[in-house]
């Protein structure tokens, strides 16, 4: 299924993803860490379970301005290389003089388990804090190690999610580039034909008309023969830009052939299509192009077909009808727009 751009008349080679996936992932990680904190508090029956990370180790912040006293206490301590258990902080040589132990909030028990990244480097810790001393046996130590493993697993999933989002963005960019003409920066033939099919089906289901315009740049072969293909490419780029400026967000312009363009106008009757095509003709003819010192007066010929005139026509038939009108416009002297009309019985 084709990816519709925000403005169909102006496709680009890259897609801007809706929202900021990084922010969404960070919010999800914060929620998961909060859940693990709640599990830790209930599992060990402690006042607080704190999960924190070193700065720059992951998307989760190492500290916040609104951190709790337990979080501030844990953040003030170095992250150890191995598990640390302090049954009674008042009896510990390193913690006894800590303000949070000697004074409020009167922390007594402290246990921490380091968190490791995929390279086994220490990236943070999960810590237990309580206001009463307690024993912490081997079973409890194993449970804390298991809790740390849950955090590490969540970080791995987070990392995979970020990589997946980046891959999706890259794939979408590649897909978009495959739909856009690399020279003219408008839809290529495959894309504009797919858009035509999608819009034809939508208009049919909603009871709306559909019109299309087939456009050909007059005397393009002479430009290539006289001035070379690079000059011809520059002229095509300018013409495509002028055509694109004449249509709205829900209308589509694509390169149908070498110097041929196809315009899809959902919801438009033949009168509307005629007005759009005439606006395009005037936009191309209004200003000459210069190749060096040589001035070129450009013009287009266009043919129109709509489901108002041909209600049972397929998209291929509509193009064929518009093509016939295009060649009639060329036979009529070029630089004009004609619409296809049903044959009278």
TrEMBL record:
Domain annotation GGDEF: ranges: 208-342
PROSITE patterns on file: GGDEF
InterPro entries tied to this protein: Diguanylate_Cyclase (IPR050469), GAF (IPR003018), GAF-like_dom_sf (IPR029016), GGDEF_dom (IPR000160), Nucleotide_cyclase (IPR029787), Rev_trsase/Diguanyl_cyclase (IPR043128)
Chain residue ranges for the region called Disordered: 1-23
Enzyme class, UniProt record, top EC level: transferase
Any GO BP annotation: cell adhesion involved in single-species biofilm formation
CDD domains: GGDEF (cd01949)
Domain of life: Bacteria
SMART domains from the UniProt entry: GGDEF
Residue stretches of biased makeup (Basic and acidic residues): 1-10
Entry EC number(s): 2.7.7.65
GO molecular function: diguanylate cyclase activity
GO cellular component terms given for this protein: plasma membrane
Annotated Gene3D superfamilies: 3.30.450.40, 3.30.70.270
NCBIfam families: GGDEF
Official protein name in the record: diguanylate cyclase
Protein species of origin: Noviherbaspirillum sedimenti
């Amino acid at each position: 299924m084709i990816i519709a751009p925000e403005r169909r008349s102006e496709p680009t080679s890259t897609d801007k993803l809706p929202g900021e996936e990084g922010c969404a992932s960070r919010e999800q990680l914060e929620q998961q860490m909060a859940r693990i904190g709640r599990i830790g508090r209930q599992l060990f029956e402690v006042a607080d379970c704190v999960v924190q990370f070193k700065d720059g180790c992951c998307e989760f912040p190492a500290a916040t301005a609104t951190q709790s006293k337990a979080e501030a206490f844990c953040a003030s301590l170095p992250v150890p290389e191995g598990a640390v258990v302090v049954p009674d902080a008042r009896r510990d040589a390193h913690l006894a003089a800590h303000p949070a132990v000697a004074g409020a909030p009167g922390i007594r028990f402290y246990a921490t388990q380091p968190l490791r990244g995929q390279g086994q480097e220490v990236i943070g810790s999960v810590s237990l804090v309580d206001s009463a001393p307690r024993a912490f046996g081997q079973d409890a130590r194993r449970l804390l190690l298991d809790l740390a493993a849950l955090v590490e697993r969540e970080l791995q999933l987070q990392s995979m999610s970020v990589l997946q989002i980046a891959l999706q963005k890259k794939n979408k960019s590649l897909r978009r580039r495959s739909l856009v003409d690399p020279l003219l920066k408008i839809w290529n033939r495959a894309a504009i034909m797919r858009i035509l099919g999608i819009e034809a089906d939508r208009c049919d289901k909603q009871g709306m008309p559909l019109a299309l315009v087939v456009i050909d740049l007059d005397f393009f072969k002479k430009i290539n023969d006289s001035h070379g293909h690079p000059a011809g490419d520059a002229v095509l780029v300018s013409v495509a830009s002028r055509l694109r400026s004449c249509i709205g967000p829900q209308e589509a312009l694509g390169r149908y052939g070498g110097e041929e363009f196809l315009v899809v106008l959902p919801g438009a009757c033949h009168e509307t299509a005629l007005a759009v095509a005439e606006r395009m003709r005037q936009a191309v003819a209004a200003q000459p192009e210069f190749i060096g010192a040589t001035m070129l007066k450009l013009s287009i010929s266009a043919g129109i077909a709509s489901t108002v005139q041909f209600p049972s026509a397929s998209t291929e038939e509509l193009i064929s009808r518009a093509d016939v009108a295009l060649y009639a416009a060329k036979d009529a002297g070029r630089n004009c727009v004609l619409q296809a009309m049903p044959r009278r019985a």
